[in-house]
Task: inverse folding
């Protein structure tokens, strides 16, 4: 396939919950190597978009192309298999299990040979030294920021070609928000392609190459992050000045 076509291309994607339309003809693209932010307020449809992308929800219209291939109606395990990995809203680690076991569970979901699992774990621990330090602690004793790193680490175990992040900053204190966004930016600098959905527009656009603004299920703006941060409507609605 031609190298100039985007890694992810979504066209006119609509999703309903029964009679309620949560996404209305959403179109967006993510190129290989990009960090793209989708910002929107509470209830805009961000989680719905990621759930539709990862096959948890079936769209009512439109199409999703990944790496030139139509994945619109694949089952979620097939979508994971094609290289899209989703870190859900609210982190969702297993609090009573150790950090190490949380990561191992993620690894076993992908592949079962021991040598592969050990080498993947080693690379995750290299990426997140704090997780290595705490590997025997139960995940429930980690701070919110560390739990978020654990959830991201687990998603990286399959070496995804596209990482979907659903509000990694949610519920974190400001300093931890900064730390998590540095982690996300660092991953992207290492070559991981990322679609980041966030209510925290300032932080998300602060690290993204480009952004989209989602309002009640519709994309209302799309531009470089710097243009969006300077946009008066964006500033008033999302940045508070
Ligand atoms: N299971 C559901 N059944 C019916 N309506 C739903 C369901 N889940 C979400 N919705 C509605 O769909 C719309 C989009 O919700 P969604 O959770 O995608 O928003 P969001 O942008 O992720 O919000 P937040 O920032 O609060 O996470 C909202 O109006 C919401 O009320
Ligand atoms: Mg959400």
Result:
């Amino acid at each position: 396939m031609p190298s100039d076509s985007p890694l992810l291309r979504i066209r006119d994607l609509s999703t309903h919950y029964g009679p309620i339309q949560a996404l209305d003809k959403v179109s967006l693209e993510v190129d290989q190597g990009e960090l793209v932010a989708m910002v929107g307020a509470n209830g805009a449809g961000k989680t719905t978009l990621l759930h539709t992308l990862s096959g948890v929800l079936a769209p009512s219209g439109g199409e999703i192309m990944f790496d030139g291939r139509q994945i619109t109606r694949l089952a979620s395990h097939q979508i994971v298999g094609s290289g899209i990995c989703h870190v859900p809203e609210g982190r969702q680690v297993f609090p009573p299990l150790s950090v190490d076991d949380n990561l191992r569970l993620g690894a076993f979901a992908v592949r079962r040979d021991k040598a592969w699992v050990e080498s993947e774990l080693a690379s995750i621990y290299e990426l997140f030294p704090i997780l290595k330090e705490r590997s025997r602690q139960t995940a429930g004793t980690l701070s919110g920021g560390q739990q978020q790193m654990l959830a991201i680490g687990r998603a990286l175990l399959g070496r995804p070609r596209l990482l979907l992040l659903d509000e990694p900053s949610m519920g974190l204190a400001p300093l931890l928000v900064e730390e998590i966004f540095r982690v996300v930016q660092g991953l992207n600098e290492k070559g991981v392609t990322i679609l980041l959905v966030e209510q925290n527009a300032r932080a998300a656009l602060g690290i993204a190459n480009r952004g989209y603004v989602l309002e009640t299920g519709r994309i209302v703006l799309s531009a470089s992050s710097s243009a969006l941060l300077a946009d008066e409507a964006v500033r008033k609605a999302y940045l508070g000045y």
The longest strand covers residues 20-30. The two ends are 45 Å apart (CA to CA). The chain has a mean pLDDT of 93.
